[in-house]
Amino acid sequence: MSRRVACRTVFLFAVVAICGLYVFPPAALLVRASNEGWQPEQGWVLSARQSGLFLETLILTACATATAIVVGLPAAACWARRGASSAITIGMAACMIVSPMTMCFGWQHLLKLNGAPSSFGHLGTVLIWAGWTWPIPALLLGEAWRRGPREAYESALLCCSRRRAFVHIVLPGMRAALAASALAVGTLLVTEFVVPHAWGLNVYATELLAAAESSSRTLDTVGPALPVCLCAWLGLMLVSRMRRSLAGKGGVSESSQAWAPPLWMRIAALGVVVLTVIVPVSGAAYRMQSWRWLGEVLRVHG
């Protein structure tokens, strides 16, 4: 098979996959909605309960996104220095591969929390979300930091501290990467409901599932889902544009290769991996020595 035929085959497969994922499902929804009527049972305005849950979901998402960015900064510094080294890659991949439910049950066991205590629900949801998604801003910020020119930063170190040089020199040049990280993490978390459910919280995605179970009409579910879909679509479009702008910048400078993150950043990055992977996984593994964990899972998610 020639290279030209192979490229055409891959392109045709990509077109079919995109149509199957993004074109046919909305078209089927439109056809079904036209047969059932274009007016949802509750109208196009969200109820007071739905508005409250949507606002609470946005607040939780914003808090978790900001926490994930802050937690990922030490790992971003290590990534900017060493790139895709084996230790950094394994640590980041482990945090994304480990299920957030493992983190939930592990920390609930370590903190001696039975079931899903609502008093700790908001804080627990934010921390688990941040511990699950911090590799995303770490990768984006680390790559942007690595590709940015380091001459101004090193010149600033001659007359000020590392902290002031980072705040006044590095951060202004990473605004696009910060926005892309926030949008990527926010888009992922705004439709996530498993972690809040484990902590006894109802979020907007839970309300959408309840609406889908209680009504057989398409628009009764699609109508309330439009705000979430709009947020996710806008986030994906902005992330795509910002990623293209970051990809068009120059390569890695020699000064960035010579720069090394301070020791406290490397220790902090290791501590983040320990707290978000090793500790909760160990707690969950110890918890599974007894069959009581199965009853707790059924009580929380049954």
Count of extended strands: 0
Strand composition percent: under 5%
Low-confidence stretches: 250-258
Helix-and-strand structural type: mainly alpha
Number of domains: 2
What is the second-level CATH architecture of the largest domain? Orthogonal Bundle
Shape type: globular
Question: Main beta sheet, described?
Answer: none
Q: How much helicity do the residues have?
A: over 70%
The CATH topology name of the largest domain reads: MetI-like fold
Give an overview in words.
By secondary structure, the chain is an all-alpha fold. The protein folds into 2 domains: 1-35; 48-301, MetI-like (MetI-like fold, Orthogonal Bundle), CATH 1.10.3720.10. Helices cover 77% and strands 0% of the residues. It has 15 helices and no strands. The protein has helices spanning 3-36, 48-82, 86-97, 100-110, 121-133, 135-147, 151-156, 162-170, 175-189, 194-198, 204-214, 218-247, 254-258, 263-287, 292-301. It is globular, with a radius of gyration of 23 Å. Mean pLDDT is 74; it is low at 250-258.
Concise summary:
This protein has 302 residues and is an all-alpha fold. 77% of the residues lie in helices and 0% in strands.
Tags for this entry?
single chain, mainly alpha, 302 residues
Sequence-ordered SSE layout with sheet pairings:
Blueprint: H1 3-36, H2 48-82, H3 86-97, H4 100-110, H5 121-133, H6 135-147, H7 151-156, H8 162-170, H9 175-189, H10 194-198, H11 204-214, H12 218-247, H13 254-258, H14 263-287, H15 292-301
Helix pairs in contact: 2-5, 2-6, 2-9, 2-14, 3-14, 4-14, 6-9, 9-12, 11-12
